Prior knowledge:
The protein has 601 residues and is α/β, with parallel strands linked by helices. The protein folds into three domains: 3-248, Glutamine Phosphoribosylpyrophosphate, subunit 1, domain 1 (4-Layer Sandwich), CATH 3.60.20; 253-421, Glucose-6-phosphate isomerase like protein, domain 1 (Rossmann fold); 439-587, Glucose-6-phosphate isomerase like protein, domain 1 (Rossmann fold, 3-Layer(aba) Sandwich), CATH 3.40.50. It has an eight-stranded antiparallel sheet with strand order 3-2-4-1-10-9-11-15. A seven-stranded antiparallel sheet has the order 5-6-7-8-12-13-14. Strand 21 (460-465), helix 16 (469-484) and strand 22 (487-492) form a beta-alpha-beta unit. The longest helix is centred in the C-terminal third of the chain and has 32 residues, at 424-455. It is globular and about 80 Å long. The protein binds 6-O-phosphono-alpha-D-glucopyranose (G6P). 6-O-phosphono-alpha-D-glucopyranose is lined by residues 298-301, 344-346, 349, 352, 395-397, 594, 596-598. It comes from Thermoproteus tenax (strain ATCC 35583 / DSM 2078 / JCM 9277 / NBRC 100435 / Kra 1). The active site is at 2 (nucleophile), 596 (for fru-6p isomerization activity). Catalyzes the first step in hexosamine metabolism, converting fructose-6P into glucosamine-6P using glutamine as a nitrogen source.
Amino acid sequence: MCGIFGITLDSETNLGALLRRALERLEYRGYDSAGIAVVAPSGVLVKKDAGKVAEVAQRLGFDHVKGATGIAHTRWATHGRPTQTNAHPHVDCTETIAVVHNGIIENYEELKSELIAKGHKFRSETDTEIFAHLMEEYERMGLSPWEAFKRALSRIRGAYALAVVDSKEPDKVFFARNLSPLIVGVGDRFNLVASDVPTVLDHTNRVIPLRDGEYGFITSRVIHVEYDGVPVRVEERVQTIPWSADQAMRGGYPHFMLKEIHEQPEAIASTIAGLEPRRLAEIAEMLLSAHKIYVVGAGTSYYAGLVFQLGLVSYKLAAVPIIASEYGTYEGLFDKGDTAIAISQSGETIDTIRAVRALRERGVRVVAVTNVVSSTLARESDLVLYTRAGPEIGVAATKTFTTQVTLLSALHMAIGRALGVDVSPQEAALKRLPEVARKTLELNEGTAKEVAEKMAANQSAYYLSRGVGMPVALEGALKMKEIAYIHAEAYPAGESKHGPIALVENKFPVVFVFSDPSLKEKLLNNVAEMAARDATIIGVIPRGDDVAKKLKYAFEAPHLDPMLNAATFVIPLQLLAYYTAIKLGRDPDKPRNLAKTVTVE
Ligand code: G6P
Protein backbone atom coordinates (compact mmCIF):
# COMPACT_ATOMS: atom_id res chain seq x y z
CA MET A 1 0.00 0.00 0.00
CA CYS A 2 1.24 3.46 -0.82
CA GLY A 3 3.19 4.05 -3.97
CA ILE A 4 6.47 5.94 -4.09
CA PHE A 5 8.48 7.46 -6.89
CA GLY A 6 11.70 9.44 -7.15
CA ILE A 7 13.58 10.75 -10.17
CA THR A 8 16.64 12.83 -10.90
CA LEU A 9 17.44 14.29 -14.32
CA ASP A 10 20.47 16.14 -15.61
CA SER A 11 18.55 19.33 -16.38
CA GLU A 12 15.42 21.16 -15.34
CA THR A 13 12.13 19.99 -16.83
CA ASN A 14 8.36 20.04 -16.20
CA LEU A 15 8.96 17.84 -13.22
CA GLY A 16 5.59 18.43 -11.55
CA ALA A 17 3.74 17.02 -14.57
CA LEU A 18 6.11 14.06 -14.72
CA LEU A 19 5.54 13.33 -11.02
CA ARG A 20 1.77 13.63 -11.47
CA ARG A 21 1.84 11.04 -14.26
CA ALA A 22 3.87 8.68 -12.09
CA LEU A 23 1.30 9.10 -9.31
CA GLU A 24 -1.55 8.34 -11.69
CA ARG A 25 0.15 5.04 -12.45
CA LEU A 26 0.76 4.28 -8.81
CA GLU A 27 -2.66 5.33 -7.63
CA TYR A 28 -3.98 1.76 -7.45
CA ARG A 29 -1.58 1.22 -4.54
CA GLY A 30 -3.34 3.81 -2.42
CA TYR A 31 -5.55 6.73 -3.20
CA ASP A 32 -6.50 8.66 -0.13
CA SER A 33 -3.78 11.34 -0.45
CA ALA A 34 -1.10 12.42 -2.89
CA GLY A 35 1.94 14.66 -2.82
CA ILE A 36 5.21 15.69 -4.42
CA ALA A 37 8.46 17.32 -3.29
CA VAL A 38 10.84 19.02 -5.69
CA VAL A 39 14.32 20.21 -4.85
CA ALA A 40 14.45 24.01 -5.10
CA PRO A 41 17.39 26.38 -4.52
CA SER A 42 16.31 27.25 -1.00
CA GLY A 43 15.00 23.90 0.19
CA VAL A 44 12.31 21.50 -0.90
CA LEU A 45 9.01 22.59 -2.37
CA VAL A 46 6.21 20.32 -1.10
CA LYS A 47 2.68 20.12 -2.46
CA LYS A 48 0.36 17.55 -0.94
CA ASP A 49 -3.19 16.95 0.22
CA ALA A 50 -5.85 14.37 0.94
CA GLY A 51 -7.82 13.27 -2.13
CA LYS A 52 -7.34 11.49 -5.42
CA VAL A 53 -4.25 12.24 -7.50
CA ALA A 54 -6.07 14.07 -10.30
CA GLU A 55 -7.92 16.44 -8.00
CA VAL A 56 -4.97 17.13 -5.69
CA ALA A 57 -2.67 17.72 -8.68
CA GLN A 58 -5.17 20.08 -10.27
CA ARG A 59 -5.93 21.99 -7.08
CA LEU A 60 -2.28 22.45 -6.10
CA GLY A 61 -0.98 23.02 -9.62
CA PHE A 62 1.53 20.15 -9.78
CA ASP A 63 1.89 20.72 -13.52
CA HIS A 64 3.41 24.19 -13.06
CA VAL A 65 6.30 22.96 -10.95
CA LYS A 66 9.70 22.85 -12.64
CA GLY A 67 12.80 21.09 -11.40
CA ALA A 68 15.31 18.30 -11.97
CA THR A 69 14.99 16.15 -8.84
CA GLY A 70 11.84 15.16 -7.01
CA ILE A 71 9.84 12.51 -5.19
CA ALA A 72 6.16 11.64 -5.12
CA HIS A 73 3.75 9.60 -3.07
CA THR A 74 0.26 8.20 -3.20
CA ARG A 75 -1.03 7.14 0.17
CA TRP A 76 -3.15 4.42 1.71
CA ALA A 77 -3.43 5.42 5.36
CA THR A 78 -1.90 3.23 8.06
CA HIS A 79 -0.69 5.61 10.78
CA GLY A 80 -2.81 8.73 10.88
CA ARG A 81 -6.00 9.67 9.10
CA PRO A 82 -5.96 10.77 5.45
CA THR A 83 -5.40 14.52 5.93
CA GLN A 84 -3.21 17.21 4.41
CA THR A 85 -0.65 17.04 7.24
CA ASN A 86 -0.46 13.25 7.18
CA ALA A 87 -0.02 13.14 3.39
CA HIS A 88 3.55 12.53 2.17
CA PRO A 89 6.18 13.90 1.52
CA HIS A 90 7.17 14.71 5.08
CA VAL A 91 9.85 17.28 5.85
CA ASP A 92 12.28 18.03 8.67
CA CYS A 93 12.22 21.24 10.74
CA THR A 94 14.35 23.14 8.22
CA GLU A 95 12.25 22.00 5.24
CA THR A 96 15.35 20.94 3.33
CA ILE A 97 14.80 17.18 3.59
CA ALA A 98 11.68 15.46 2.22
CA VAL A 99 10.73 11.81 2.59
CA VAL A 100 8.21 9.46 0.99
CA HIS A 101 7.63 6.01 2.41
CA ASN A 102 5.68 2.83 1.80
CA GLY A 103 5.48 0.49 4.79
CA ILE A 104 5.52 0.87 8.55
CA ILE A 105 8.36 2.03 10.79
CA GLU A 106 7.64 -0.09 13.84
CA ASN A 107 9.80 1.75 16.38
CA TYR A 108 8.69 5.24 15.37
CA GLU A 109 7.16 6.12 18.72
CA GLU A 110 10.39 5.75 20.68
CA LEU A 111 12.34 7.61 17.97
CA LYS A 112 9.75 10.37 17.94
CA SER A 113 10.02 10.89 21.73
CA GLU A 114 13.80 11.00 21.42
CA LEU A 115 13.64 13.61 18.65
CA ILE A 116 10.99 15.72 20.41
CA ALA A 117 13.29 15.79 23.47
CA LYS A 118 15.99 17.18 21.17
CA GLY A 119 13.69 19.99 20.07
CA HIS A 120 12.29 18.64 16.81
CA LYS A 121 8.82 19.84 15.92
CA PHE A 122 6.49 17.29 14.37
CA ARG A 123 3.62 18.23 12.12
CA SER A 124 1.96 14.88 11.38
CA GLU A 125 0.82 11.73 13.16
CA THR A 126 2.74 9.51 10.77
CA ASP A 127 5.58 7.10 11.41
CA THR A 128 7.32 8.42 8.28
CA GLU A 129 8.01 11.96 9.49
CA ILE A 130 10.56 10.73 12.03
CA PHE A 131 12.87 9.81 9.18
CA ALA A 132 13.22 13.40 7.97
CA HIS A 133 13.97 14.58 11.51
CA LEU A 134 16.41 11.74 12.14
CA MET A 135 18.39 12.75 9.07
CA GLU A 136 18.25 16.38 10.14
CA GLU A 137 19.54 15.41 13.57
CA TYR A 138 22.55 13.57 12.10
CA GLU A 139 23.26 16.44 9.72
CA ARG A 140 23.26 18.79 12.71
CA MET A 141 25.95 16.56 14.15
CA GLY A 142 28.04 17.28 11.06
CA LEU A 143 27.30 14.28 8.84
CA SER A 144 26.79 14.70 5.10
CA PRO A 145 23.29 13.96 3.79
CA TRP A 146 24.41 10.53 2.55
CA GLU A 147 26.03 9.65 5.88
CA ALA A 148 23.00 11.02 7.75
CA PHE A 149 20.68 8.95 5.55
CA LYS A 150 22.61 5.79 6.33
CA ARG A 151 22.71 6.57 10.06
CA ALA A 152 18.97 7.25 10.10
CA LEU A 153 18.34 3.95 8.30
CA SER A 154 20.30 2.07 10.92
CA ARG A 155 17.88 3.35 13.57
CA ILE A 156 14.58 2.27 12.02
CA ARG A 157 12.88 -1.12 12.20
CA GLY A 158 10.03 -2.38 10.09
CA ALA A 159 8.93 -2.53 6.50
CA TYR A 160 9.87 0.26 4.17
CA ALA A 161 10.54 1.50 0.71
CA LEU A 162 11.90 5.02 1.10
CA ALA A 163 12.84 7.83 -1.25
CA VAL A 164 14.41 10.98 0.13
CA VAL A 165 15.61 14.29 -1.32
CA ASP A 166 17.83 16.78 0.47
CA SER A 167 18.45 20.23 -1.00
CA LYS A 168 22.02 20.17 0.36
CA GLU A 169 22.77 17.52 -2.29
CA PRO A 170 20.23 18.60 -4.89
CA ASP A 171 21.04 16.07 -7.60
CA LYS A 172 20.45 12.93 -5.50
CA VAL A 173 17.52 10.76 -4.54
CA PHE A 174 18.37 8.52 -1.60
CA PHE A 175 16.46 5.25 -1.33
CA ALA A 176 16.17 2.09 0.75
CA ARG A 177 14.17 -1.07 0.67
CA ASN A 178 13.17 -3.57 3.33
CA LEU A 179 10.11 -5.77 2.73
CA SER A 180 8.25 -3.18 0.64
CA PRO A 181 8.93 -3.32 -3.11
CA LEU A 182 11.25 -0.82 -4.80
CA ILE A 183 12.68 -0.84 -8.29
CA VAL A 184 15.43 1.26 -9.84
CA GLY A 185 14.76 2.41 -13.41
CA VAL A 186 17.95 2.82 -15.43
CA GLY A 187 17.77 5.78 -17.79
CA ASP A 188 19.87 7.77 -20.17
CA ARG A 189 20.85 10.97 -18.32
CA PHE A 190 18.27 10.23 -15.62
CA ASN A 191 17.60 7.51 -13.10
CA LEU A 192 14.56 6.78 -11.01
CA VAL A 193 13.06 4.62 -8.29
CA ALA A 194 9.46 3.41 -8.13
CA SER A 195 7.26 0.96 -6.27
CA ASP A 196 6.38 -1.02 -9.36
CA VAL A 197 7.39 -1.84 -12.89
CA PRO A 198 4.52 -0.21 -14.88
CA THR A 199 5.50 3.16 -13.39
CA VAL A 200 9.11 2.70 -14.47
CA LEU A 201 8.00 1.68 -17.98
CA ASP A 202 6.87 5.20 -18.82
CA HIS A 203 10.52 6.20 -18.75
CA THR A 204 12.67 3.14 -19.40
CA ASN A 205 12.33 -0.63 -19.69
CA ARG A 206 15.65 -1.31 -17.94
CA VAL A 207 15.14 -2.09 -14.28
CA ILE A 208 16.99 -3.30 -11.22
CA PRO A 209 14.67 -4.78 -8.59
CA LEU A 210 16.17 -3.96 -5.20
CA ARG A 211 16.53 -6.61 -2.52
CA ASP A 212 15.66 -6.38 1.14
CA GLY A 213 18.29 -4.48 3.07
CA GLU A 214 19.64 -2.60 0.04
CA TYR A 215 19.90 1.19 0.03
CA GLY A 216 21.75 3.82 -1.92
CA PHE A 217 21.29 6.90 -4.06
CA ILE A 218 20.79 7.83 -7.68
CA THR A 219 21.96 10.85 -9.61
CA SER A 220 21.19 11.37 -13.30
CA ARG A 221 24.30 9.35 -14.16
CA VAL A 222 25.08 7.18 -11.14
CA ILE A 223 23.29 4.32 -9.41
CA HIS A 224 24.96 3.53 -6.13
CA VAL A 225 23.64 0.62 -4.05
CA GLU A 226 24.98 -0.80 -0.80
CA TYR A 227 24.10 -3.66 1.48
CA ASP A 228 25.38 -3.64 5.03
CA GLY A 229 28.01 -1.01 4.24
CA VAL A 230 29.36 -2.84 1.20
CA PRO A 231 28.75 -1.56 -2.37
CA VAL A 232 26.65 -3.93 -4.49
CA ARG A 233 27.40 -4.50 -8.19
CA VAL A 234 23.95 -3.88 -9.56
CA GLU A 235 25.00 -3.44 -13.21
CA GLU A 236 24.82 -7.24 -13.53
CA ARG A 237 21.26 -7.23 -12.28
CA VAL A 238 19.79 -4.92 -14.91
CA GLN A 239 16.82 -6.59 -16.57
CA THR A 240 14.94 -5.58 -19.68
CA ILE A 241 11.18 -5.77 -19.16
CA PRO A 242 9.26 -7.04 -22.19
CA TRP A 243 5.99 -5.23 -21.30
CA SER A 244 5.32 -1.99 -23.10
CA ALA A 245 4.06 1.04 -21.21
CA ASP A 246 0.96 0.73 -23.39
CA GLN A 247 0.25 -2.72 -22.04
CA ALA A 248 0.16 -1.20 -18.61
CA MET A 249 -2.36 1.43 -19.67
CA ARG A 250 -6.09 1.16 -20.13
CA GLY A 251 -6.03 0.83 -23.90
CA GLY A 252 -9.47 2.21 -24.70
CA TYR A 253 -11.39 0.53 -21.88
CA PRO A 254 -13.16 2.68 -19.28
CA HIS A 255 -11.44 0.79 -16.47
CA PHE A 256 -8.37 -1.36 -16.03
CA MET A 257 -10.57 -4.07 -14.58
CA LEU A 258 -12.64 -4.40 -17.75
CA LYS A 259 -9.53 -4.30 -19.89
CA GLU A 260 -7.94 -7.01 -17.78
CA ILE A 261 -11.08 -9.18 -17.90
CA HIS A 262 -10.90 -8.95 -21.69
CA GLU A 263 -7.19 -9.70 -21.73
CA GLN A 264 -7.79 -13.12 -20.23
CA PRO A 265 -7.74 -15.20 -23.44
CA GLU A 266 -4.38 -13.66 -24.33
CA ALA A 267 -3.02 -13.93 -20.79
CA ILE A 268 -4.01 -17.60 -20.64
CA ALA A 269 -2.44 -18.22 -24.06
CA SER A 270 0.83 -16.56 -22.94
CA THR A 271 0.85 -18.61 -19.77
CA ILE A 272 0.38 -21.82 -21.75
CA ALA A 273 3.09 -20.79 -24.23
CA GLY A 274 5.47 -20.17 -21.32
CA LEU A 275 4.95 -23.58 -19.66
CA GLU A 276 8.19 -25.44 -19.08
CA PRO A 277 7.43 -29.18 -19.23
CA ARG A 278 10.69 -30.21 -17.58
CA ARG A 279 10.21 -27.86 -14.66
CA LEU A 280 6.61 -29.01 -14.25
CA ALA A 281 7.77 -32.64 -14.23
CA GLU A 282 10.41 -31.83 -11.63
CA ILE A 283 7.84 -30.14 -9.38
CA ALA A 284 5.38 -32.99 -9.93
CA GLU A 285 8.04 -35.40 -8.61
CA MET A 286 8.67 -33.12 -5.64
CA LEU A 287 4.98 -33.15 -4.79
CA LEU A 288 4.66 -36.90 -5.25
CA SER A 289 7.58 -37.56 -2.94
CA ALA A 290 6.60 -34.93 -0.36
CA HIS A 291 5.60 -36.02 3.12
CA LYS A 292 3.08 -33.23 3.32
CA ILE A 293 1.91 -30.66 0.77
CA TYR A 294 0.79 -27.11 1.57
CA VAL A 295 -0.92 -24.61 -0.68
CA VAL A 296 -0.46 -21.02 0.51
CA GLY A 297 -1.82 -17.69 -0.71
CA ALA A 298 -3.97 -14.67 0.12
CA GLY A 299 -7.21 -13.40 -1.43
CA THR A 300 -7.72 -14.48 -5.00
CA SER A 301 -4.41 -16.35 -5.07
CA TYR A 302 -5.63 -18.48 -2.18
CA TYR A 303 -8.75 -19.39 -4.13
CA ALA A 304 -6.65 -20.39 -7.15
CA GLY A 305 -4.71 -22.55 -4.68
CA LEU A 306 -7.96 -24.20 -3.57
CA VAL A 307 -8.67 -25.22 -7.16
CA PHE A 308 -5.31 -27.03 -7.16
CA GLN A 309 -5.78 -28.54 -3.71
CA LEU A 310 -9.17 -29.96 -4.70
CA GLY A 311 -7.75 -31.17 -8.01
CA LEU A 312 -5.06 -33.15 -6.16
CA VAL A 313 -7.70 -35.28 -4.50
CA SER A 314 -8.26 -37.09 -7.83
CA TYR A 315 -4.69 -38.38 -7.49
CA LYS A 316 -5.25 -39.34 -3.85
CA LEU A 317 -2.98 -36.50 -2.75
CA ALA A 318 -3.95 -34.54 0.34
CA ALA A 319 -2.72 -30.95 0.59
CA VAL A 320 -3.23 -28.54 3.45
CA PRO A 321 -4.62 -25.20 2.15
CA ILE A 322 -3.28 -22.30 4.22
CA ILE A 323 -4.50 -18.71 4.10
CA ALA A 324 -1.15 -16.93 4.21
CA SER A 325 -1.88 -14.74 7.24
CA GLU A 326 -2.82 -17.88 9.20
CA TYR A 327 0.47 -19.68 8.61
CA GLY A 328 1.44 -19.43 12.29
CA THR A 329 -1.35 -21.84 13.21
CA TYR A 330 0.17 -24.49 10.97
CA GLU A 331 3.84 -23.90 11.73
CA GLY A 332 4.01 -26.97 13.96
CA LEU A 333 3.33 -29.13 10.88
CA PHE A 334 6.15 -27.71 8.75
CA ASP A 335 8.98 -30.19 8.37
CA LYS A 336 11.81 -31.34 6.13
CA GLY A 337 10.51 -33.44 3.27
CA ASP A 338 7.38 -31.31 2.88
CA THR A 339 6.65 -29.17 -0.19
CA ALA A 340 4.62 -25.98 -0.40
CA ILE A 341 3.10 -24.20 -3.38
CA ALA A 342 3.04 -20.46 -2.59
CA ILE A 343 0.85 -18.39 -4.88
CA SER A 344 0.97 -14.61 -5.23
CA GLN A 345 0.32 -12.46 -8.26
CA SER A 346 2.57 -9.65 -7.07
CA GLY A 347 5.04 -11.84 -5.24
CA GLU A 348 5.10 -9.11 -2.59
CA THR A 349 2.13 -9.83 -0.30
CA ILE A 350 3.74 -9.68 3.10
CA ASP A 351 1.68 -12.48 4.64
CA THR A 352 2.66 -14.85 1.85
CA ILE A 353 6.32 -13.83 2.12
CA ARG A 354 6.31 -14.40 5.88
CA ALA A 355 4.64 -17.79 5.43
CA VAL A 356 7.28 -18.76 2.88
CA ARG A 357 10.07 -17.70 5.22
CA ALA A 358 8.58 -19.79 8.05
CA LEU A 359 8.20 -22.78 5.73
CA ARG A 360 11.76 -22.57 4.49
CA GLU A 361 13.20 -22.06 7.96
CA ARG A 362 11.77 -25.45 8.82
CA GLY A 363 13.20 -27.10 5.74
CA VAL A 364 10.07 -27.13 3.57
CA ARG A 365 10.75 -26.76 -0.16
CA VAL A 366 8.79 -23.92 -1.63
CA VAL A 367 7.56 -23.62 -5.20
CA ALA A 368 6.38 -20.10 -6.06
CA VAL A 369 3.62 -19.31 -8.52
CA THR A 370 3.85 -15.61 -9.35
CA ASN A 371 3.32 -13.09 -12.11
CA VAL A 372 6.29 -10.87 -11.35
CA VAL A 373 9.79 -11.81 -12.37
CA SER A 374 12.30 -11.19 -9.60
CA SER A 375 9.64 -10.40 -7.02
CA THR A 376 10.52 -11.14 -3.42
CA LEU A 377 8.56 -14.40 -3.56
CA ALA A 378 10.33 -15.51 -6.73
CA ARG A 379 13.72 -14.80 -5.19
CA GLU A 380 13.01 -16.47 -1.89
CA SER A 381 11.54 -19.73 -3.20
CA ASP A 382 13.32 -22.90 -4.27
CA LEU A 383 11.61 -23.05 -7.64
CA VAL A 384 9.40 -20.63 -9.53
CA LEU A 385 6.56 -21.02 -12.01
CA TYR A 386 5.53 -17.82 -13.75
CA THR A 387 2.06 -16.91 -14.88
CA ARG A 388 2.34 -14.60 -17.84
CA ALA A 389 -0.63 -12.36 -17.30
CA GLY A 390 1.24 -9.09 -17.94
CA PRO A 391 0.75 -6.17 -15.56
CA GLU A 392 -2.48 -6.17 -13.58
CA ILE A 393 -3.46 -2.71 -12.41
CA GLY A 394 -7.10 -3.15 -11.31
CA VAL A 395 -7.13 -3.78 -7.57
CA ALA A 396 -9.49 -6.74 -7.98
CA ALA A 397 -7.53 -9.66 -9.42
CA THR A 398 -9.00 -11.11 -12.62
CA LYS A 399 -6.54 -12.30 -15.25
CA THR A 400 -4.13 -13.33 -12.56
CA PHE A 401 -6.69 -15.82 -11.16
CA THR A 402 -7.37 -17.39 -14.53
CA THR A 403 -3.67 -17.67 -15.36
CA GLN A 404 -2.92 -19.13 -11.94
CA VAL A 405 -5.60 -21.77 -12.50
CA THR A 406 -4.18 -22.42 -15.97
CA LEU A 407 -0.68 -22.93 -14.62
CA LEU A 408 -1.80 -25.06 -11.68
CA SER A 409 -3.91 -27.21 -14.03
CA ALA A 410 -0.81 -27.81 -16.13
CA LEU A 411 1.04 -28.84 -12.96
CA HIS A 412 -1.86 -31.13 -12.10
CA MET A 413 -1.48 -32.76 -15.53
CA ALA A 414 2.25 -33.19 -14.96
CA ILE A 415 1.46 -35.09 -11.75
CA GLY A 416 -0.96 -37.28 -13.68
CA ARG A 417 1.72 -38.02 -16.28
CA ALA A 418 4.21 -38.92 -13.57
CA LEU A 419 1.65 -41.36 -12.18
CA GLY A 420 1.13 -42.94 -15.61
CA VAL A 421 -2.38 -41.54 -16.01
CA ASP A 422 -3.56 -40.73 -19.53
CA VAL A 423 -3.96 -36.97 -19.37
CA SER A 424 -4.30 -36.43 -23.11
CA PRO A 425 -7.97 -35.32 -22.81
CA GLN A 426 -6.94 -32.60 -20.31
CA GLU A 427 -4.01 -31.59 -22.49
CA ALA A 428 -6.35 -31.16 -25.44
CA ALA A 429 -8.72 -29.16 -23.25
CA LEU A 430 -5.86 -26.93 -22.07
CA LYS A 431 -5.01 -26.09 -25.68
CA ARG A 432 -8.59 -24.95 -26.22
CA LEU A 433 -8.65 -22.83 -23.06
CA PRO A 434 -7.76 -19.43 -24.61
CA GLU A 435 -10.44 -19.85 -27.28
CA VAL A 436 -13.00 -21.01 -24.72
CA ALA A 437 -12.21 -18.00 -22.54
CA ARG A 438 -12.77 -15.75 -25.57
CA LYS A 439 -16.10 -17.44 -26.29
CA THR A 440 -17.14 -17.15 -22.63
CA LEU A 441 -16.54 -13.40 -22.73
CA GLU A 442 -18.52 -13.08 -25.93
CA LEU A 443 -21.44 -15.13 -24.60
CA ASN A 444 -21.87 -13.37 -21.28
CA GLU A 445 -21.23 -9.65 -21.46
CA GLY A 446 -24.86 -8.83 -22.32
CA THR A 447 -26.29 -11.14 -19.65
CA ALA A 448 -23.87 -9.69 -17.09
CA LYS A 449 -25.22 -6.19 -17.74
CA GLU A 450 -28.79 -7.44 -17.45
CA VAL A 451 -28.23 -9.39 -14.21
CA ALA A 452 -26.20 -6.50 -12.76
CA GLU A 453 -29.32 -4.32 -12.94
CA LYS A 454 -31.05 -6.76 -10.57
CA MET A 455 -28.03 -7.46 -8.42
CA ALA A 456 -27.51 -3.76 -7.76
CA ALA A 457 -30.89 -3.59 -6.03
CA ASN A 458 -29.78 -6.09 -3.36
CA GLN A 459 -27.63 -5.83 -0.29
CA SER A 460 -26.73 -9.53 -0.12
CA ALA A 461 -26.25 -12.52 -2.36
CA TYR A 462 -25.20 -16.16 -2.04
CA TYR A 463 -22.78 -17.95 -4.33
CA LEU A 464 -23.22 -21.71 -4.01
CA SER A 465 -21.43 -24.68 -5.51
CA ARG A 466 -19.83 -28.01 -4.79
CA GLY A 467 -16.38 -29.47 -5.39
CA VAL A 468 -13.99 -27.55 -7.63
CA GLY A 469 -16.83 -25.10 -8.27
CA MET A 470 -16.49 -23.85 -4.69
CA PRO A 471 -13.33 -21.77 -5.24
CA VAL A 472 -15.08 -20.24 -8.26
CA ALA A 473 -18.04 -19.32 -6.07
CA LEU A 474 -15.66 -17.90 -3.46
CA GLU A 475 -13.84 -15.85 -6.09
CA GLY A 476 -17.12 -14.64 -7.65
CA ALA A 477 -18.40 -13.52 -4.24
CA LEU A 478 -15.07 -11.86 -3.44
CA LYS A 479 -15.26 -9.78 -6.64
CA MET A 480 -18.81 -8.68 -5.78
CA LYS A 481 -17.77 -7.63 -2.26
CA GLU A 482 -14.57 -5.93 -3.37
CA ILE A 483 -15.90 -3.66 -6.05
CA ALA A 484 -19.70 -3.45 -5.68
CA TYR A 485 -19.70 -3.50 -1.85
CA ILE A 486 -22.56 -5.99 -1.85
CA HIS A 487 -22.39 -8.58 0.86
CA ALA A 488 -21.81 -11.71 -1.19
CA GLU A 489 -21.22 -14.96 0.60
CA ALA A 490 -19.99 -18.20 -0.92
CA TYR A 491 -21.07 -21.45 0.65
CA PRO A 492 -20.93 -25.15 -0.20
CA ALA A 493 -24.43 -25.64 -1.60
CA GLY A 494 -25.23 -28.62 0.62
CA GLU A 495 -24.17 -26.70 3.70
CA SER A 496 -26.43 -23.78 2.84
CA LYS A 497 -29.29 -25.60 4.54
CA HIS A 498 -27.43 -25.30 7.83
CA GLY A 499 -28.01 -21.61 8.34
CA PRO A 500 -27.64 -19.39 5.26
CA ILE A 501 -31.02 -20.40 3.83
CA ALA A 502 -32.69 -18.59 6.75
CA LEU A 503 -31.99 -15.29 4.98
CA VAL A 504 -33.50 -16.33 1.68
CA GLU A 505 -36.79 -14.70 0.76
CA ASN A 506 -38.44 -13.18 -2.28
CA LYS A 507 -35.87 -12.08 -4.95
CA PHE A 508 -32.80 -12.88 -2.84
CA PRO A 509 -30.09 -13.54 -5.48
CA VAL A 510 -28.43 -16.95 -5.38
CA VAL A 511 -25.69 -17.70 -7.90
CA PHE A 512 -24.94 -21.37 -8.58
CA VAL A 513 -21.71 -22.53 -10.20
CA PHE A 514 -22.23 -25.72 -12.22
CA SER A 515 -18.64 -26.26 -13.32
CA ASP A 516 -18.52 -29.99 -12.52
CA PRO A 517 -21.19 -31.95 -14.44
CA SER A 518 -20.87 -34.91 -12.07
CA LEU A 519 -22.33 -32.73 -9.30
CA LYS A 520 -25.20 -31.36 -11.36
CA GLU A 521 -28.02 -33.46 -9.86
CA LYS A 522 -27.08 -32.64 -6.29
CA LEU A 523 -26.77 -28.95 -7.09
CA LEU A 524 -30.19 -29.02 -8.72
CA ASN A 525 -31.65 -30.15 -5.40
CA ASN A 526 -30.18 -27.02 -3.83
CA VAL A 527 -31.55 -24.92 -6.66
CA ALA A 528 -35.01 -26.34 -5.90
CA GLU A 529 -34.64 -25.47 -2.21
CA MET A 530 -33.75 -21.89 -3.01
CA ALA A 531 -36.43 -21.58 -5.71
CA ALA A 532 -39.04 -22.78 -3.21
CA ARG A 533 -38.19 -19.67 -1.16
CA ASP A 534 -38.62 -17.41 -4.22
CA ALA A 535 -34.93 -16.67 -4.55
CA THR A 536 -33.73 -15.25 -7.87
CA ILE A 537 -31.68 -18.14 -9.26
CA ILE A 538 -28.68 -17.30 -11.39
CA GLY A 539 -26.35 -19.98 -12.72
CA VAL A 540 -23.05 -20.38 -14.50
CA ILE A 541 -23.57 -23.54 -16.53
CA PRO A 542 -21.97 -25.55 -19.32
CA ARG A 543 -23.06 -24.16 -22.68
CA GLY A 544 -26.26 -25.72 -23.95
CA ASP A 545 -27.04 -27.56 -20.70
CA ASP A 546 -30.75 -27.97 -19.93
CA VAL A 547 -30.12 -26.68 -16.41
CA ALA A 548 -30.88 -23.31 -17.99
CA LYS A 549 -34.61 -24.11 -17.70
CA LYS A 550 -34.39 -24.09 -13.93
CA LEU A 551 -32.74 -20.69 -13.77
CA LYS A 552 -33.94 -17.14 -13.99
CA TYR A 553 -30.64 -16.10 -15.57
CA ALA A 554 -28.01 -18.36 -17.12
CA PHE A 555 -24.39 -17.58 -17.88
CA GLU A 556 -22.92 -20.14 -20.24
CA ALA A 557 -19.38 -21.33 -20.77
CA PRO A 558 -18.22 -24.16 -23.05
CA HIS A 559 -17.41 -27.20 -20.90
CA LEU A 560 -13.78 -28.38 -20.82
CA ASP A 561 -12.91 -30.27 -17.66
CA PRO A 562 -13.92 -29.51 -14.04
CA MET A 563 -10.55 -28.00 -13.10
CA LEU A 564 -10.06 -25.95 -16.27
CA ASN A 565 -13.67 -24.82 -16.06
CA ALA A 566 -12.63 -22.89 -12.94
CA ALA A 567 -10.68 -20.58 -15.25
CA THR A 568 -13.63 -19.82 -17.51
CA PHE A 569 -16.70 -20.15 -15.28
CA VAL A 570 -15.30 -17.34 -13.14
CA ILE A 571 -15.36 -14.92 -16.09
CA PRO A 572 -19.14 -14.23 -16.06
CA LEU A 573 -18.87 -13.61 -12.32
CA GLN A 574 -16.10 -11.06 -12.87
CA LEU A 575 -18.29 -9.32 -15.44
CA LEU A 576 -21.29 -9.45 -13.12
CA ALA A 577 -19.32 -7.79 -10.31
CA TYR A 578 -17.91 -5.20 -12.71
CA TYR A 579 -21.27 -4.16 -14.17
CA THR A 580 -22.91 -4.17 -10.75
CA ALA A 581 -20.22 -1.78 -9.49
CA ILE A 582 -20.77 0.44 -12.54
CA LYS A 583 -24.53 0.40 -12.01
CA LEU A 584 -23.96 1.50 -8.41
CA GLY A 585 -21.56 4.25 -9.46
CA ARG A 586 -18.54 2.65 -7.74
CA ASP A 587 -15.05 2.91 -9.21
CA PRO A 588 -14.04 -0.73 -9.81
CA ASP A 589 -10.36 0.11 -10.22
CA LYS A 590 -10.15 1.82 -6.86
CA PRO A 591 -12.35 0.03 -4.37
CA ARG A 592 -12.50 1.74 -1.01
CA ASN A 593 -10.21 0.46 1.75
CA LEU A 594 -8.46 -2.05 -0.52
CA ALA A 595 -4.98 -2.08 -1.98
CA LYS A 596 -3.59 -4.09 -4.86
CA THR A 597 -0.61 -5.32 -2.95
CA VAL A 598 -0.83 -5.63 0.80
CA THR A 599 2.60 -5.04 2.25
CA VAL A 600 1.54 -4.67 5.90
CA GLU A 601 0.57 -7.56 8.17
C1 G6P B 1 -4.92 -7.92 -2.20
C2 G6P B 1 -5.60 -7.67 -3.53
C3 G6P B 1 -6.25 -8.96 -4.02
C4 G6P B 1 -5.22 -10.08 -4.09
C5 G6P B 1 -4.50 -10.27 -2.75
C6 G6P B 1 -3.30 -11.21 -2.88
O1 G6P B 1 -5.88 -8.18 -1.23
O2 G6P B 1 -6.57 -6.66 -3.40
O3 G6P B 1 -6.80 -8.75 -5.31
O4 G6P B 1 -5.85 -11.27 -4.45
O5 G6P B 1 -4.00 -9.02 -2.29
O6 G6P B 1 -2.36 -10.63 -3.75
P1 G6P B 1 -1.17 -11.42 -4.42
O7 G6P B 1 -0.37 -10.38 -5.14
O8 G6P B 1 -0.40 -12.07 -3.31
O9 G6P B 1 -1.77 -12.43 -5.33
